[in-house]
Amino acid sequence: MNTALLAVRALWKREVLKFVRDKSRIFGALAQPLGFWLLLGFGFERSFRAPAAAGSELSYIEFLFPGIVALIILFTAIFSTISIVEERKSGFLQAALVAPTSRLTLVFGNTLGGTSLAVVETLLFLLLLPVIGVIPSVTSISLVLLTTILIGVAFTSLGFIIAWRMDSTRGFHAIMNLFLLPLWLLSGAPFPIDGASPVLRWIMVVNPVTYAVDALRQAIYWPSTAVEPFVSLPAALAITFVFALAMLALAAHSIRKPLYGLA
Question: Which of 126, 174, 178, 228 is the most buried if burial means most Cβ atoms within 10 Å?
Answer without folding.
Answer: 126
